[in-house]
Amino acid sequence: MTVGHSLSIEDRVRAIVTAHDGERGRLLPILHGIQAEFGYVDEAVVPVLAQELNISRADVHGVITFYHDFRKAPAGRTEVRVCRGEACQAVGAENLMAHAQRRLGVSTGETTPGGDVTLEQVFCLGNCALGPSVQVNGRLYGRVGTERLDTLMAEADAR
Ligand code: FES
Fold first, then answer.
1. Where on the phi/psi map is residue 106: left (φ > 0), alpha (ψ -120 to 50), or beta?
2. For the chain, which terminus, N or C, has the lower number of CB atoms within 10 Å?
3. 1-25 pLDDT tens trace
4. Residue 6 class from Cβ within 10 Å (0-12 exposed, 13-18 middle, 19+ buried)?
5. Any idea where the domains of the chain sit in the sequence?
6. How far, in Å, is the centroid of ligand 1 from the Cα of 19?
7. Residue 40: φ, ψ to 5°
8. pLDDT in tens, 26-55
9. Transmembrane ranges (predicted)?
10. Which fold has domain 78-158?
């Protein structure tokens, strides 16, 4: 469903809620819909969802923070997702993530000042045999070490 951008944020959120009318467990698909519509889940949607779904703001918050899928601020121009799934952990994913955090000066889920890079974690990219796996702007890379990660980030930044 396409929602016209001349509508207010609240109206756009309500339209997404309406699109999932009658579904069981609809908060998650609604939140995915909001992220698809706005690029992230803004704090301002919490009271609207609480009211529309007749649940507490704390419940909405709980779901947003529990699932790592939801971004709380607009993403940077480059999105780096480091896999922390079991198979990747066994071949150095934690080291890779720590390196990315140091290098970018951000924690997981944050964006560098200026909006250049957002660092995200995922828990499997379906590339387990070739870990550590990393996705940069939607492209998957395997056997990524710290140097390769630096190169990938620099290349993405140069585009
Ligand atoms: S655990 Fe990293 S790709 Fe599957």
1. beta
2. C
3. 444 457 888 999 999 999 999 898 9
4. exposed
5. 9-66, 78-158
6. 33
7. -165, 170
8. 999 999 999 999 989 999 999 999 999 999
9. none
10. Glutaredoxin (3.40.30)
CB 122 less than 6 A from any atom of ligand 1: no
Cα 149 to ligand 1 centre (Å)? 16
* DSSP per-residue letters across the chain: ----TTS-HHHHHHHHHHHTTT-TT-HHHHHHHHHHHHSS--TTHHHHHHHHHT--HHHHHHHHHHSTT--SS---SEEEEEE-SHHHHTTTHHHHHHHHHHHHT--TT-B-TTS-EEEEEES--S-GGGPSPEEETTEEE-S--HHHHHHHHHHHHH-
Q: Does the Cβ of 125 fall within 6 Å of ligand 1?
A: yes
